[in-house]
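(Deposited chain)
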Amino acid sequence: MATPFLAGLAVAAAAYAGRYGIQAWQAFKARPPRMRKFYEGGFQVTMTRREAALILGVREHTPTDKVKEAHRRVMIANHPDAGGSHYLASKINEAKDVLLGKTKGGGSAF
């Protein structure tokens, strides 16, 4: 008498667990993709080391060779000869100068 009852209880528990699993999977598939959070806001009047690091995608105290490598990578993607913006190119160059300590305080050409 107890064996059929326990078997039925086990089948019901398995059915509920399967139903819950299917609902969880469908909710997981239906969720919107996670978007990467980017820095919000425009450029500052005088570029800081933090802003320069954000532009080049490095940390503020990155070694010189890594700064140059990051500058090259970002500049290739945004070079005016390849359809990029002159303004962005000047900001990328300014960011490299700020991180390498070559700033003259003049800021961007724009």
Q: What stands out?
A: The chain has a mean pLDDT of 87.
